[in-house]
Amino acid sequence: MPTYNLKVNGAVHKIEAVADTPLLWVLRDQLELTGTKFGCGIGQCGACTIHINGVPARSCQTPISTVGAMLITTIEGLSPDGSHPLQKAWCTHDVPQCGYCQAGQIMSAAAFLQSNPTPSDQEIDSAMAGNLCRCGTYLRIRTAVKDAAKSMQNGGRP
């Protein structure tokens, strides 16, 4: 079985896995990073969103063999203590209901705000359209993303 050296959340992990194993299962089953969720398995819902070199990616559709030395960030690595402005805004605006999609939502929003620090409502809706929320908290998600953007502009302060 091939061996891979994955750079996940700032640490290098030596992993043995079949080449086509989805990164999601390596993260959850071998590294025990269970914040990244399995939703649909076909890359459509966004629950499994992580960052690969700062770009959002669907870990359920990313074979471990394609990652190489790229930097992988999961929800656990975004801010281990929950102090990221998006995580704070999610709590402030009571975004999660069931919570299942929220890690993927936050990871997509984090990458989006890196490229667009002052988004309009329409830009937020467009950027977040690939992440599904079965509980329908889209308005709260938009509000939280806007507040986090403002906080990030102020150096992380609300």
Give keywords.
158 residues, alpha+beta, single chain, globular, Ubiquitin-like (UB roll), DNA polymerase, domain 1, 2 domains, 6 helices, five-stranded mixed beta sheet
Question: What do you see in this structure?
Answer:
The chain folds into two domains: 3-78, Ubiquitin-like (UB roll) (Roll); 85-153, [2Fe-2S]-binding domain (DNA polymerase, domain 1, Orthogonal Bundle), CATH 1.10.150. It is 37% helix and 15% strand. The protein contains six helices and five strands, in the order E-E-H-E-E-E-H-H-H-H-H. The chain has helices at 23-30, 75-78, 85-92, 102-115, 121-128, 138-153; strands at residues 3-8, 11-16, 49-52, 55-58, 71-73. It has a five-stranded mixed beta sheet, with helices on both faces. Strand 1 (3-8) and strand 2 form a beta hairpin. Helix 3 (85-92) packs across helix 6. The radius of gyration is 15 Å and the shape is globular. It starts with a strand and ends in a 5-residue tail after the last helix.
Average of the residue pLDDT scores: 95
DSSP strand count: 5
What is the CATH architecture descriptor of the largest domain?
Answer: Roll
Please trace the helix and strand order, writing H or E for each element. Answer: EEHEEEHHHHH
Number of domains: 2
Number of contiguous helices = 6
CATH class of the largest domain: Alpha Beta
Structural class: alpha+beta
